[in-house]
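Friendly challenge for the regulars: who can give me the structure tokens for this chain first? No prize, just bragging rights.
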Amino acid sequence: MEPLSPARIQRVIYVTYIITVLDISMLFLQFSITPYLARRLGFDTLWFGYLQTTVGVIQLLGGPVFGRFADVFGARAALSISSIASVVYFLLLAATDSTLMLFLHKLPAVFMHALPEPLRNRVFRCCLKLRAQMVVADLSPSEKRADALAKLGLCFGIGMITGSSLGGTISTRYGDKVAALVAAAGSLISLLLVQNYIPQHSKKQDAKESNSTSTYTPYHPGDWDCLNVDRDEGLFTPSEKGAGSVFSLGEIARLMEFPGVAKTFTVKIISGLPTGVFQVMFSIIAMNIYQLTAQQNGYLMAYVGVVQMVIQGAVIGRLTSRYHENSLLLLSIGVSSLVGLAQAFTTTAFQFCFVVMPMMFSLSVFGVITDSMLTKSVPASDTGTMLGLCASVQSLLRTIGPTIGGFLYETYGVASIGYIQFIVNAIVFSLLFMSRTTTTPNQ
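First reply, four minutes later:
Bragging rights claimed.
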């Protein structure tokens, strides 16, 4: 297969950014529908938690399989399936008029990995779309990957502003069904862009490598730092490297054996759990604590999108070019700890607007840096599966988060969620800082 020219690679990345803006816009458009539709159908806090847990389980199962599917069959096939699933998802939402249908319309989410990572829940999905991440990670050189992923976050901010504003306006003036149909039409346009502009395969591999399985060279086993595996300039078809089955659990579990991966995943889960609890509970907090209507919630999300755009577009790229990823990881965890403390004292939407800035900074840096570190830790042929595992981490948090969040909310109040985030991230920060100071002299 002929390698893509640099100009075409750049064009593919730009089209991927456009697809991301469109997908995120449609995603946030439906955020103005679901919480209020659930309330009209008689959902209380407990049942709304069950609904979010259902989505978490579905995407937890689908994330690694979707990533593996992309590695085996290529970017175009994976993105096409994801776009088709989005169309079906929104059409089912438009037809939802009962509790059963509200649960059933979530089933296509098994292939919908919209997950810009800082906030992968019903209100904030500030993680980057898994399907867009795979293309950008495959086509970006190793040293520029964090910056490229950050630009996906900039696209996310644009989509958040557009979708939140549009969704609140359409659902208020024309109703939920029209808003859902508009989202379905947007996903259909995304499918057409994928079919016409995304190459069948996006993996890179050097020409001399086409008969081998990988160029991966193990790093220092004792170093907690993740690896820097450079991609070369050729492209290859996954079948040329003897790709395994899409449903091969062994292939997925194999990635955890690479140096640095297990430790980074552990940090991703433990540090992300308290943050994820707040995220999955935000719909309830916005309605019950902040007393926001659908249109007001849309405006708040638009504001969050502006903050996201500034951080992803103007801040993260400069930070990654000047500072080591480990230092930025520590910074994001430290800021997240302080954000948890601030959240514990936040009682109004106005106060929350001030908390949003450091919150989005920590979430954006944490998501971009951990995904960048993990994709550099594995061979180029496995980036899709690795990003699928990253998506599953967030789905795991969404699976257990509603149960934990509902219990804390009902028993100890909203402030308890912030206090736990403060304590857990402070402990993780301390352990990583001590680990770093211990390994640096040994290197």
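The two ends are 41 Å apart (CA to CA). Confidence is low (pLDDT under 50) at residues 114-128, 205-244. Your move, everyone else.
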